[in-house]
Amino acid sequence: MRIGEVAERTGLSLRTIRYYGEVGLVAPSARSQGGFRLYTASDVDRLQLIKRMKPLGFSLEETRDLLVAVDGLESAATGEDERRALAERLDRFEADIAERCAALRRQLDMAEEFGERLRRKQRDASA
Fold first, then answer.
1. Cα 126 to Cα 13: distance, rounded to the nearest angstrom
2. What percent of the chain shows pLDDT beyond 90?
3. Which of 66, 10, 58, 65 is nearest to 18 (CA)?
4. Ramachandran bin of 60, using left for φ above 0, alpha for ψ from -120 to 50, beta for the remaining angles
5. How far is CA 97 from CA 59, 75, 94, 108, 113, in A?
6. Among 50, 47, 35, which Cα is nearest to 2's?
7. Any bridge partners for residue 59, and if so which?
8. SS (H, E, C) 11-72
9. Separation CA 67–CA 62 (nearest Å)
10. CA–CA distance, 114 with 93 (Å, rounded to integer)
11. 57-88: per-residue pLDDT in tens?
12. Which residues pair with residue 37 across a beta bridge?
């Protein structure tokens, strides 16, 4: 796929996809004869993973760390000891994600409660 199709599938801008390539998070799997970036379904999946980390506040370094762990676990060349260490890293990421989601739920609850207070004040003022 060319970058435009990838952008359409992922909802990311062309600029963002290029940036992720520049910082080493995802590189096009190939180039066309004309020099266009070409991406695979696996590249799109990687971009979707990166996209899901951003709203949770993960830094580029944390994102890179997660991708290294995922890549290592998917590699047939990864030894058993390294595989265990990578799985532990993913467990820590999972725990961190759960904490970040809980914090976002608390923020959402406060925002909804705030909205309800404003609606009540508006109703009371109109009555």
1. 45
2. 90
3. 10
4. alpha
5. 13, 24, 5, 16, 24
6. 35
7. none
8. CCCHHHHHHHHHCCCCCCCEECCCCCEECCHHHHHHHHHHHHHHHHCCCHHHHHHHHHHHHH
9. 9
10. 31
11. 999 999 999 999 999 999 999 999 999 999 99
12. 31
How many CA atoms lie within 13 Å of 15's alpha carbon, on the beta-carbon side?
0
> Beta-carbon neighbour count of residue 56 at 10 Å?
14
Q: Give the pTM.
A: 0.81
Q: How far apart are CA 64 and CA 53, in angstroms?
A: 11
Look at residue 34 and tell me whether its pLDDT is greater than 90.
no
Rounded-to-integer distance, Cα 107 and Cα 101, Å: 10
